[in-house]
Amino acid sequence: MNSERKKILLDLLFPALFVALLWIIQFGQTYLHLSLNEFGIFPRSLRGIPGIFLAPLIHGSNSHLLSNSLPLLILGTMMFYFYQGIAFRIFFWIYLMTGLWVWAGARGGGAYHLGASGLIYGFVSFLFFAGIFRKDSRLLRISLFVLIFYNGLVWGVFPLVDSISWESHLLGSLAGILCAWYFRKEGPERHRYSWETEPEEDDSDEDDPEGGEEAYQPQEPPLRIQYVFKPLPKK
User: What is the pTM of this model?
Assistant: First the structure.
């Protein structure tokens, strides 16, 4: 039990540090009266390139960051717990691909794209589709959990509200799906049940190309040695 608790705490460490970094940046904006919006993603512009790496770290308000913090902690911990060994790579590629795609394909119109919600959508889609692609009953439970508790996020990929970067949500989801497919053969191995195990082939038929019964071969009777005692005649 202690080892399991220790593992959970270790898997929580990176998501917690990441969320703590977001709050440090947000407190700096709030209490030092700074505006870091210009470090967001400005699509198809040279000044928007730094936002590929910095936009997820910047939020427009405390409420914006607050709404993202808990999902980042929960989903990030689940990803590091169940996909230990490849979680850092998944985090990196979702982070990078979402930023690149938003910079290349999101609407412009003088607006900056900010926030870590694209990462959240990437984590959700990865956790959901990874269990499906791997056909692992244990990981499919995670897919079911994500479906139940985060099904409302699906509306965020549609252009329903102008002030929301639905492009980050949509492209983050696509990045998560791509990572789920690409890493489907890495990380935790699928548990195989006894009924899935193929029976071992019998090698007895290898010498019989026709696969029939072994031909009858008569055997010679065993060699018998018989000793006969014959007494000598009396003189």
Answer: 0.78
